[in-house]
Amino acid sequence: MPQMAPLNWTSLYIMFSFMFVAMIIMHFYVFMYTPKTSIKFHKTPVPSWKW
After folding, report:
1. What's the structural domain count of the chain?
2. Residue span of the structural domain in which 18 resides
3. Is 31 contained in some domain?
4. For residue 16, is it within any domain?
5. 2 part of a folded domain
6. How far apart, in whole angstroms, are the C-alpha atoms of residue 25 and residue 32?
7. Residue 22: which of 33, 14, 10, 11 has the closest Cα?
8. What is the distance between the alpha carbons of residues 34 and 28, in angstroms, rounded to a whole number?
9. Alpha carbon of 30 to those of 7, 23, 25, 27: distances in Å?
10. 1 in a domain, yes or no?
11. What does the pLDDT read at residue 12?
12. Is residue 1 scored above 60 in pLDDT?
């Protein structure tokens, strides 16, 4: 069964640091997203539609 080429510690360090930075950027854009349009709720009395 063919095996992957051996990786040294520098390539592993660069790969995992790049993955770490990419995850930080992704979480910043996923969880800290502020929408540009804000939804305003008005408390207006709604008449009852039930009889």
Report:
1. 1
2. 7-51
3. yes
4. yes
5. no
6. 10
7. 14
8. 11
9. 32, 10, 9, 5
10. no
11. 87
12. no
Residue with tokens 């950027």: 25
Does 17 score more than 90 pLDDT? yes
pTM of structure? 0.47
Structure token digits, residue 15: 């790969």
Question: Which amino acid is it at 27?
Answer: H
Whole-angstrom Cα distance, residue 33 to residue 27?
A: 10
| The pair of three-digit structure tokens given for residue 19, joined into one six-digit string | 């993955």
* Interatomic CA distance for residues 30 and 28, integer angstroms: 6
DSSP-assigned states of every residue in the chain: ---PPP--HHHHHHHHHHHHHHHHHHHHHHHS---SSPP-----PPPP---
